[in-house]
């Protein structure tokens, strides 16, 4: 698999009489990157040992191997019998790696010199430790299964080592919390939910040897925490949570929000270099996998995309000097882990541009103007290597280096020696703060530029003969020259040859054809060039008529209850060889999304289902076929809100027939509570009271509009002193704002009550 690094800047400009070419903005970085398949059946966590320049990899629950490699991913040692090794942490002196053994109910201490297990500390049967951190002279570990999460500690300074469980009581954590600590934040231990959403994040003071809760925060808009790391200045913690789709930053002091790093769905990894550079990773199958940021900056320096592979959870780590980023990818099952070594990920993208004349003459001097730019400032005096490639020097010949001025500008002066295409190539080697860059610019020496024009009818009938005429400029042309014609249509999307046409000495030619396939027929004509003329290509498209076919779209109702499922049916009429229809849904104010595509049934129908939460426009689309034209149809379905009601203040309940009535004392104040879903804060909520008499319900009062609260709720109170022995019912109605077209006005259900002396 090829790793793609996406550069964030590029410059292409056109000046009067000049053209510009800019290419390969970050090639040197890509050259320096490497990958290594890891001999593990599964990946769990990674830890960098800066002293010995090793990387430790745990293989997770159900496995028993800890792999040790060098910084290139070459295996150095395999440590077996580490059942369920998951979380890893390094002792302050770098002598030991502590591994949480999920299936071994223990914490393992691995000697970083001998690469063997030195000690194993039992944490008790069924404890299942998963995470581990070192703070205030102790090893801390998160352990416990469902509804049993807690934090334990190990004091390795005693003999035997003292293992303490239940250090934070029994109700703080649903399952084993994820832990984080850093020497830059002495006495601080962070814990977070890794199995529940929304999760809690808590800061403990462990300087006394026992956890003392400092701040506990519920991350309401987040899903479970996959990874977190304290910043090198000890002031913040950066979290990777499955949602929201960015990396969150919180102050260690009070766990208040302190910024974000934009990433994508679904954040699962974070690593912070010693200089504060942040690598924010996500489980993103169809988007960038890693975003590199300077500390507290909003624009990524670089991004990385691993293609079909996905970044593993907790799959990022930096080398000690921040010059390399280690990233582990796996397949969709978490297997086949691969280590990617990314060199200089914090180096800013650089661009080279080169401009000059479009044509040249042998033996005459020409001058090209170039510029070196980068997202990071580039000092003057940078050397840019220059080479020329021409027909005599197909492998290139070196020219004197160009040197940049204070603005990054430079010039290249050369005298071409031969006719033909001459390419000038410039390259900048880059440094620790700037990525390498290359650019090239081609001067056409001696040969005349050739332009081809085609004239074709805009439309034509199917099976009707048509003519395409063309002209090559810069004549005359040698006799016997030809152009090659290819055509693409719906039946031949890759194109097929229509043969050759003779070019007259004035550069004219004629193409004859009788199209059999409707739709766009694109004719591409190519001239290979001759001794005096360059090659040229042009295309012309003729829209060949197709028969219209009916396409309709219906729903099984015109309006729906909130959350109800609409049945959407598209009917396609007669076609030739295409029977595929696509159905899209676009909720009001939302994006249009494909909900079903497929071949219609024998009756011409394609049926889709869609759950409505707001007014939605459905669109059916037929792309057309060889003989029938594309068609679309639309249908709008309207959606109610959900009005939930309840009564309060009653002292008992009774039934009249099968209807439940709440019973109030005449001195009580009845309150009806209403909630509207989705949130309609600030919009209208009305209440209506009816009384039953003369064998019918009669409206007694209807309230004016009340504005729904910020939580989309409202309530109304009634005094009941004059309602003794009466039967009443009350309901709430949501009345949509004239500015809100997302849902229909909706009545709630009747709430029945009676009043006693």
UniProtKB/TrEMBL annotation:
Record flagged with keyword Signal: yes
SUPFAM superfamilies named in the record: Nitrous oxide reductase, N-terminal domain (SSF50974), YVTN repeat-like/Quinoprotein amine dehydrogenase (SSF50969)
Keywords of the record: Signal
Keyword Metal-binding belongs to the record: no
Secretion signal, residue range per the UniProt entry: 1-32
Domain of life: Bacteria
UniProt-recorded name of the protein: WD40 repeat domain-containing protein
Organism listed in the record: Actinacidiphila oryziradicis
């Amino acid at each position: 698999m090829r790793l793609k690094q996406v550069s964030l800047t590029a410059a292409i400009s056109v000046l009067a009489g000049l053209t510009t070419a800019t290419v390969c903005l970050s090639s040197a970085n890509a050259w320096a990157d490497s990958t290594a398949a890891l001999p593990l059946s599964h990946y769990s966590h990674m830890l960098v040992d800066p002293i010995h320049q090793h990387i430790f990899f745990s293989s997770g629950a159900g496995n028993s191997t800890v792999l040790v490699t060098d910084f290139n991913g070459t295996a150095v040692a395999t440590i077996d019998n580490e059942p369920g090794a998951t979380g890893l942490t390094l002792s302050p002196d770098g002598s030991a790696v502590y591994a949480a053994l999920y299936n071994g109910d223990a914490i393992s201490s691995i000697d970083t010199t001998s690469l063997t297990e030195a000690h194993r500390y039992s944490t008790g049967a069924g404890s299942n430790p998963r995470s581990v951190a070192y703070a205030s002279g102790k090893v801390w570990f998160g352990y416990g299964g469902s509804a049993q999460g807690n934090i334990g500690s190990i004091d390795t300074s005693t003999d035997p080592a003292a293992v303490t469980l239940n250090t934070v009581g029994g109700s703080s954590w649903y399952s084993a919390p994820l832990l984080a600590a850093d020497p830059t934040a002495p006495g601080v231990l962070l814990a977070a939910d890794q199995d529940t959403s929304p999760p809690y994040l808590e800061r403990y003071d462990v300087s006394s040897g026992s956890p003392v809760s400092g701040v506990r925060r519920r991350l309401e808009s987040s899903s479970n925490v996959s990874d977190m790391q304290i910043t090198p200045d000890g002031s913040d913690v950066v979290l990777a949570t499955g949602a929201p789709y960015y990396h969150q930053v919180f102050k260690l002091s009070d766990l208040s929000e302190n910024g974000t790093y934009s990433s994508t769905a679904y954040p699962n990894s974070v690593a912070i270099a010693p200089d504060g550079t942040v690598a924010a990773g996500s489980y993103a199958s169809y988007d960038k996998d890693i975003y590199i940021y300077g500390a507290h900056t909003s624009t990524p320096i670089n991004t990385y995309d691993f293609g079909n592979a996905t970044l593993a959870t907790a799959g990022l780590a930096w080398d000690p000097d921040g010059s390399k980023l280690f990233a582990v990818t796996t397949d969709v099952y978490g297997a086949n882990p691969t280590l990617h070594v990314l060199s200089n990920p914090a180096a800013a993208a650089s661009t080279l541009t080169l401009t000059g004349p479009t044509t040249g003459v042998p033996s005459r001097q020409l001058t090209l103007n170039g510029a070196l730019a980068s997202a990071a400032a580039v000092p003057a005096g940078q050397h840019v290597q220059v080479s020329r490639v021409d027909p005599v020097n197909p492998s290139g010949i070196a020219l004197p280096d160009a040197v940049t001025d204070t603005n990054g500008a430079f010039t290249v002066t050369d005298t071409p020696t031969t006719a033909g295409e001459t390419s000038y190539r410039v390259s900048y080697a880059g440094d620790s703060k700037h990525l390498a860059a290359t650019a090239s610019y081609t001067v056409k020496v001696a040969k005349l530029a050739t332009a081809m024009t085609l004239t074709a009818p805009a439309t034509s009938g199917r099976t009707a003969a048509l003519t395409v005429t063309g002209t090559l400029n810069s004549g005359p042309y040698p006799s016997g020259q030809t152009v090659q014609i290819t055509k693409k249509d719906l039946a031949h999307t890759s194109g097929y040859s229509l043969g050759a046409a003779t070019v007259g000495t004035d550069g004219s030619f004629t193409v004859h054809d009788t199209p059999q396939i409707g739709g766009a027929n694109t004719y591409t004509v190519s001239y290979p060039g001759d001794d005096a003329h360059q090659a040229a290509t042009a295309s012309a498209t003729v829209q060949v008529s197709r028969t219209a076919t009916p396409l309709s779209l219906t729903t099984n109702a015109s309006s729906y209850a909130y959350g109800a499922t609409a049945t959407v049916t598209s009917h396609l009429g007669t076609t030739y060889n295409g029977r595929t229809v696509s159905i899209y849904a676009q909720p009001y104010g939302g994006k249009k999304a494909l909900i079903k595509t497929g071949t219609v049934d024998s009756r011409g129908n394609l049926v889709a289902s869609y759950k409505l939460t707001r007014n939605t426009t459905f669109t059916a689309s037929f792309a057309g076929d060889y003989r029938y034209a594309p068609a679309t149809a639309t249908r709008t379905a309207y959606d109610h809100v959900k009005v939930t009601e309840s009564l309060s203040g009653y002292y008992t309940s009774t039934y009249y027939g099968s209807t439940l009535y709440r019973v109030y004392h005449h001195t009580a104040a009845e309150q009806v509570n209403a909630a509207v879903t989705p949130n309609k804060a600030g919009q209208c909520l009305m209440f209506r009271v009816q009384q039953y008499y003369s064998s019918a319900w009669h409206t007694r009062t209807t309230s004016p509009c009340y504005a729904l609260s910020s939580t989309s709720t409202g309530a109304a109170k009634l005094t009941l002193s004059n309602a003794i022995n009466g039967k009443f019912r009350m309901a709430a109605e949501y009345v949509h704002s004239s500015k809100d077209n997302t849902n229909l006005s909706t009545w709630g259900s009747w709430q029945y009550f009676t009043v006693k002396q």
